[in-house]
Amino acid sequence: xxxxVVGFGMMGRQIAQVFAQHGHEVAVTxxxxxxxxTGIDEISNGPFxxxxxxxxxxxxAEEGARALQLIKVAPTIEEACLDSDLxxxxxxxxxxLKQKVLHMIDSISPRTALLGSNTSTLGISKIAxxxxxxxxxxxxxxxxPAQVTKLVEIVKGEQTSQDSxxxxxxxxxxxxxxxxxxxxxxxFVANRLGLTLYVEASRLFEExxxxxxxxxxxxKLGYGHSMGPFEVADIxxxxxxxxxxxxxxxxxxxxKWIPPKTLRExxxxxxxxxxxxxxxxxxxxxxxxxxxxPN
Length: 295
Ligand SMILES: NC(=O)c1ccc[n+]([C@@H]2O[C@H](COP(=O)([O-])OP(=O)(O)OC[C@H]3O[C@@H](n4cnc5c(N)ncnc54)[C@H](O)[C@@H]3O)[C@@H](O)[C@H]2O)c1
What we know:
Elements: E1 2-6, H1 10-21, E2 25-29, H2 33-45, H3 50-55, H4 61-70, E3 71-73, H5 77-81, E4 86-89, H6 95-108, E5 114-117, H7 124-127, E6 137-142, E7 151-156, H8 162-174, E8 178-183, H9 190-206, H10 212-223, H11 229-236, H12 238-252, H13 261-268, H14 285-292
Helix pairs in contact: 1-2, 1-4, 12-13
The site of nicotinamide-adenine-dinucleotide has 26 residues, from helix 1 and helix 6.
């Protein structure tokens, strides 16, 4: 299968790597030249990259080299999509941008191609407004880090055909993941639940009820979560968390999605999460928490 990934940031890279590791040709493109260069380097040398997978015995050296060969940088979106069977957009979480990019993808990719969006909070039906073949647009929501996480939400927009949903589900299974099918509601299922927990955890912290570490421990030891809500936020990226909440608040008008004050302060001050995963970040909850509320 030929896959095109449009938007080669944090998620685009991970998605491209997963498809390549499963033997698919992937053309990647981004409007930023820098993103293309750092993206390829991250796929090779990042914390969940190919070198690390080889070191952990998850890939042989030959499989790793083959996967890297399968990823090709395309200088333009046209070249990336030219003969693709599946196009996945992973550009910034912004309605107008995604609408523009999907409209473009629709006009340049083969008529048979499935058009996937990795949006985490925006409505698929709205993103697809300017697309001719709306029945081929489907949400394919991967989770960070996609090399490791097993879930992909398949989002059925108002006009997405059942055939497209089934095709997307088969593709997801082919790359070793488990699809769940969800309707096009703000936040879908996983983020609506995950962000609810995160907002409530932030409220507990801001009210001084418990420390960040102890709130995380409550969910890990009490509920068997592998990570606490603050650990997840550090990995996902605090700027991404903020954008997700703003998008949910904007779409629903529900006050429960108003971003926590501490989150906004951290993002404004350059604390974007785990610096090893968010270039240029000054740190995440654990480092930052010490300076505003000592344990
Ligand atoms: N970060 C996460 O944990 C996460 C998880 C699941 C889904 N998502 C979703 O994935 C998408 C991407 O998020 P991200 O965290 O990878 O963002 P990111 O900021 O790391 O990357 C976005 C990339 O899109 C590129 N881009 C912007 N406009 C473009 C255009 N017109 N053409 C080509 N490329 C363009 C940017 O240059 C950038 O490299 C968003 O919709 C987000 O909600 C993010």
